[in-house]
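Lab notebook page, bench 4
Experiment: in silico fold of construct C2
Operator: M.H.
Input chain length: 514 residues
Purpose: comparison with the prior construct
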Amino acid sequence: MKHSNLNPEESSLFLEVYNVNGAVVLPLHSSIALFLLSYTECKSFQVYLLSDQPGSVEALAGSLPKSLAVSEVKREEAPALVAACRLPAVLEPNGRFCRAGLAVVLRHVIQTTCLLEPQRRDVSSLLGFKNTCLKACAEVSRWTRLCELDIPSAVEDHLRNPTEARLHLPSALLQLEHRLAEPVKVHNDDKLRRHKLQQQKNSGKNSEGNSQPPDSQQEDPLNKSQRGVEMSAALAKLSVDGAPPVPTTRERSNVRKVKTTELPELEHVFAEGLYFTLTDVVLLPCIHQYLISLQNHAPHVLLQIPLLLRWYQRLQELPGVLRTAKDCGIVLFSLQVPQPCSTHPDAPHCLESDQESPAPSQEHFVGGPRPTLSKLQEHGIEAVFSPHPCAAWTLDWESLPAAVNPTEGKMSVTRAVRKRQQLNNLVAMVKELADPDHTIVDFCSGGGHVGIVLAHTLPQCQVILIENKEESLVRARHRSSQLGLQNISFIQANLDYFIGNFQVGRGLDKKEDR
């Protein structure tokens, strides 16, 4: 079914479709977005395939979720804000707020689902501890870059030439394999680790009392792991109450007295540790296609990724994953899991832990001498301030609406004074460069201190604010709504995802524009 007219009353999700040698191809980023929509059973978005040629929906019927209504739109008919971004992208009903980039879009789908169905613990848990899963942008987080960009890109490169003579594992896949070999650190894991120690001791006693030959006692490592503490905790997280398993009996005294440093480490069950998260949703369509290709063209390479195979098998224990795979036409299959190795000498160094930096203090900045000026004063050098050489550049802040003033952006009065001085210069320079009907882009816009002033003082220009921090951009949108601005738009995305045309661009150090 094809629709060329967009519904302005619904949020729209736009996905990329390629035409390669006459065949319609669904990129991995699009497959991942569709997989998440099916998993969450989210019906809040009208889904559009952006294609150069008609017939994409029919050609991809076997790869599209049967539970979703998917339409197609010609690339030249895409809304201007969507056309300015790399896909996937979500456009809000008013057409002036766009979210672009895989991680940003997927997190928005989850948040939208949780807002409408707060009882869906299986969906809310996808965002992980403190809702930070894939929140840090790829520009600063090596883990987000690996999952969002490097692995999908590596798999697509492989699929374009799967029979390459010198086939080798991409670095991105080796990094993931190495990550799965690292011990898991989770909040308050002491009880789980003691429970694991007690299980190990019980298992040791049972082995001593068993007179069967060693060969008959061997078990599939995968099944053994599934019966362990880690897999039990992972499955319990997806249950109704979402609580990890707690031993019904207290550990024996010899277990309770063991030092924390001597307790056994917890092993990875899923990509980020014990629990199924958005990262697993992102990786599954990629790894699935990669494993199919390896099995057909280079099965010997599978021996190099035992932990990745183990992860793939464990996902098939989750009913939600099986339901979604069936809905999306993905046929998951079983592989013989090699014995995992504890170390991988050929793998790159492990990724640094992507721990969230401490939350900034809520106290307002207390103004005072700048550090440089203080040092000059200590050496008897006094700074002499002179009037601005271009007095006409100074805006009449008292006559402007309150929402234009930087003080509306939650900053101290002292800092707001400096910000207004900064804005005086920037606005004056942009006004000299911009003509009516020009598009002005405020890169790394933060709370919109510059962009909002530009949109207010240049009503005949279109102003686009680009920022990857959702909280800042939402605050900017609220301020622009108070002013009733109709010439301003917002894009939540990394700079890499903006590909639009513009006449004037403005950028500041991000620390100075919050």
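Observations: The longest strand covers residues 45-51. The chain has 19 helices and eleven strands.
Next step: discuss at group meeting.
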